[in-house]
Amino acid sequence: MDAPINPDAIASLKASAPLKPSRWQQYFFQWIDKRSPPAVAVLLGRKNLYTFPTVMGFGFLGLSLLLWVLGTNYQNNLILALSYLLISLFVVSILHTYANLAGLNIRVAGAKPAFAGESVHFVLEVSGTRAKGNDNIVARWWSGEPMTFDFEPPAAIATGTAQQAQSITVSLMASRRGYLRPGKLLLESTYPLGLIRCWTWLNLDACAVVYPKPLKADFPALSLDDKQGQHGEPTAGGDDFSGLKEYRAGDPIKHIAWKHYAREQGLYSKEYASAQQADTWLQWQSFLHLPPEARLSALCYWALEFDRLGVPYGLRLPGKQLPPGLDDGHRLSVLSALARFDTRLAG
Amino acid sequence: MDASIEAFEQHKLIRHENLLWLIVAQGVAIVPLLFHLPPWMWLVWLGAMVWRLRIYNGKLAFPATLTKFMLGAACVGGLMVSYRGQVGVEPMIGFLVCAFILKLLELRTHKDGLLLLFIGFIAVGAQFLFTQTFFMAFYAWTSCVALVTAWQTIYLTRRLGVVHKLKSGFFMLLHALPLMVVMFVIMPRLGPLWHVPLPQGTGQTGFSDSLSPGDLGQLVKSQGTAFRVNFNAGRAPSPNEMYWRGLVLDEFDGRTWRLSAQWDMTLKNDPRFVPKLTGANDLIDYTVQLEPHQYPWLFALAEPIKVTSIKATRQNIHITQQGLLTAHRPVASRIQYTVLSASADDLSGSALSAAEQAQLLRLPAGTNPQAQALGQSWREQYQAPQAIIATALTWYNQDFHYTLEPPVLGKHSVDEFLLTTKRGFCEHFASSFAVLMRAAGIPARVVVGYQGGTYNALEDYWRISQSDAHAWVEVWLANRWQRVDPTSAVAPQRIEQGIGSALGEQDRALVGAGHYQAPQWLGAWRERMDAAGYVWNRWVLNYDTGKQSELFARWFGGTEPWRIGAVFIGLIAGMLGGYTLWVIRPHRSRKTPLQKAIEQFDKTCLKLGYVRYREESLALFAHRLAEQKKEYETACHDIARISEHVLYRQDHTDEAALMTALKQFPKPVHRP
């Protein structure tokens, strides 16, 4: 009867095994954790910036050496001078690369909630005091996608309060519902010459709520003639269902034959002799045939669907009940409740 | 997954504005080299540039691997043909430049861009193999600025103006300069690690190893510098005594003087040839900076007794038995050597061997019969060599003319000159005089070199130019060689005041292309530039281990390794400290006048006992203050109102008003 749920869809709800840092990186991260505990705002400086030559940096040193050999073999002081100039340029570029990151202030501004399987956009506030500004900085969460930003030099600050901050968004794929702690933030730059990489791993105290990934599942107990239907709770005697008619704009949304719709048979309105306003409840028990995570996903799907259709709905989870409602605030509380729900409570 | 990698790599591609910078930087680095390479390379460069720009405009695609290979092969083939398969510096640089140019056609990613720039730096270094003047160094600096600027634009993601970019590249290099100077001065110098070929492109200058009538007449017309001399103890001989000996020619074929094969350039290893000093009063100590002339012979005053080459790493210099200096390889780059010369009076020699005697008297039979007959008649007439020499010089003085454009001479050149034309240049006088002496039984040989020089008071040195080229004669008298200059008998001004004053008006125009008529300011300018070049050569190009230890001894009191190490580390540490303060200084930035006014206002309030919190805006604080301090209410409300205007109206007059209000606080301000 019920359209079978694609097992792949359920499988996709299971979070793939999280990436693990390499052993060396783990030691490095442990060391960083000791040096800097998680914080909401971090000032980049001597204590948390590291520098090391890039591959191109070593190549450039090789080039300087080549010129040095050329100058020595030809006893040509100007070629020697050029090779020394290049080595000096390398040394100076260490400082320039460091200065490009030093003095930046990174602050967690927040994150927008997202559904599992989507990217969570963490918003960071960047501010700096360098008159030249800061160029070409790459930011990425440990397992996330890199993004590049520049910090423009602050313009005249009229209010005189804080420095002008610039918001950047660093995204991270949320693999499962719940709280997402993005882990360490990498900030790196090889500006201006690409010879030196200056980087830092920041322990930022950021957190985002991840809603369950919506899973399209049949709304189970709703059959057109089922009196224990979860969808409508018709008042006694008022349930003289008279038939289906094709949905037309303006029909009450509550009368839509969801089961037919869910089977993709088309959109129909149920006709009642005397339809009563009834509350719709999203219940944990309704989806007992699904694994717990999929259950939450199905509830999420229906919450969104009802919200879209304008049907007030309530939520009943083990240990948590939200009375029916229909507005943005209600939707957020329902979704948060789904996101935070501890499946162990359900037994 | 692949798509995401591609998307990530996207920002590693060369953007259009970098491409223009890279092309310009490459052009700046490449142009000086192209002058030393076959002319068709210009076309290759232009072609590659046009092709890349058309790729940039989307008109053409990047060349396929096969096309690139064919282009590379064509360039290599072209170079092989142009250089006839030789291996040397020029072909190697040709390959480098080819790779540099063709790299343009596969310029896609940041990495390609960096590679292009790296080759660019090698190209800048390669320029110094050909030219090492101060101007070339300045040009190389400019090239480096262009390269570094192009380099920075690869990593720059903001849009900045051209001047801004250039400035930032320039300052980056400027920051590197002090460290470079320290390394240049302190880093130890090593000798060549292995043998390397030298550039061949520069032609031989100066005279060759033979002397025919007219040779020197051509040479003196060139304006170039032969060498520069600095007299170390400040004791310079008078200019008329400055006979810079280069070569001794002792074989005559009737027209041309050459080196005799047997004497050639025999080294003076034999203690027999080491001159014995009889009186050490008259030693002259001087340093010669010789321009490359591609010949092995060097120049010195008679009679060199000791020579040390300052650039000993490249050239071993010896004294030959004829009292000449010779390097073991042709002089292909500027060298510098110090000589100690004793005047001939202080030396004692030994008698000539029979073979030497015969060689020095030999005249080819059947040539110049009249001159030979004349010499023999003098021998019978006078007996004493001094008398014969005096007779000849008197004759020259009375009958002959000194001119740069003598009549052309035929087979018996000496006869024709002595008896018919009687007009000649120094080689005519030297050649004929030596023939006469030999005919008269006096061993004689021709010496070629330079005579005189121009003093440069700015840097205290003498510049000897090609127009000072000269030939004279040495005769064997009283068991030693004595100099006789027949030219001085004809044109004493040549020896006393230089060639410019010895020549007639017409000839003078031929020497150095009007050098002598140059206006005074131009002459002074030339002198100044020459002095700058001399200092550049002496202190930068010829800076070596010897100069290094000299400098260390003078500045740091010694040359011990620990001392040098300490100085090096100290300087580097000091410099890095300075850099850290100067380049990094993360917490300092220029404050706007408004920010300063706000700071001043905060301080005033602090004195009144009110602190503005970090997150509190001016307006909020002013309102809070107004409530608590009724006497400042008006002023506070002014500030609050104007600061809101500044925030929301974005009008510059508001900013100015806010500044006055802040500065005048606690007096109220009423806006007009």
Structure description:
The complex is a heterodimer of chains A (347) and B (672). Chain A is of the alpha+beta class and 347 residues long. Chain A folds into two domains: 30-211, no CATH class; 241-346, no CATH class. Chain A has seven helices and 17 strands. In chain A, the strands form five sheets. A five-stranded antiparallel sheet of chain A has the order 2-11-10-6-7. In chain A, strands 1-3-5-8 form a four-stranded antiparallel sheet, with no helix packed on it. The relative contact order of chain A is 0.13. Chain B is an alpha+beta fold and 672 residues long. Chain B has four domains: 2-156, no CATH class; 210-520, no CATH class; 545-582; 593-664, no CATH class. Chain B has a six-stranded antiparallel sheet with strand order 9-12-7-2-18-17. Chains A and B meet through helix 3 and helix 4 of A and helix 6, helix 7, helix 8, helix 21 and helix 22 of B.
Order of helices and strands of chain A: HHEEHHEEEEEEEEEEEHEEHEEH
Helix content of chain A: 25-40%
How many DSSP helices of chain A?
A: 7
Strands of chain B, count? 20
Low-pLDDT parts of chain B are 1-8, 268-273
Low-confidence stretches of chain A: 156-162, 222-238
For the largest beta sheet of chain A, what order do the strands appear in spatially? Answer: 2-11-10-6-7
Mean pLDDT of chain A: 79
Widest β-sheet, arrangement of strands of chain B: 9-12-7-2-18-17
Through-space gap between termini of chain B:
65 Å
Computed structural class of chain A: alpha+beta
Topology:
The complex is a heterodimer of chains A (347) and B (672).
Chain A: H1 7-11, H2 23-35, E1 41-43, E2 50-53, H3 55-73, H4 77-101, E3 105-111, E4 114-115, E5 119-127, E6 134-141, E7 147-151, E8 166-173, E9 178-180, E10 184-189, E11 196-203, E12 208-211, E13 241-246, H5 258-262, E14 268-272, E15 280-283, H6 292-309, E16 313-317, E17 320-325, H7 328-340
Parallel strand pairs in A: 4-12, 15-16
Antiparallel strand pairs in A: 1-3, 2-11, 3-5, 5-8, 6-7, 6-10, 9-12, 10-11, 13-14, 16-17
Helix pairs in contact in A: 3-4, 6-7
Chain B: H1 2-10, H2 16-34, H3 40-56, H4 65-82, H5 89-103, H6 110-130, H7 134-155, H8 162-186, E1 210-211, H9 215-219, E2 225-231, E3 243-249, E4 251-252, E5 257-258, E6 276-277, E7 284-290, E8 300-301, E9 304-309, E10 317-319, E11 325-327, E12 335-341, E13 347-348, H10 354-361, H11 369-382, H12 385-399, E14 401-402, H13 413-421, E15 423-424, H14 426-439, E16 444-451, E17 454-456, E18 461-465, E19 469-477, E20 480-484, H15 486-490, H16 492-497, H17 499-502, H18 505-510, H19 520-541, H20 545-556, H21 561-584, H22 593-608, H23 618-628, H24 633-649, H25 652-664
Parallel strand pairs in B: 14-15
Antiparallel strand pairs in B: 1-5, 2-7, 2-18, 3-8, 3-16, 4-5, 6-13, 7-12, 9-12, 10-11, 16-19, 17-18, 19-20
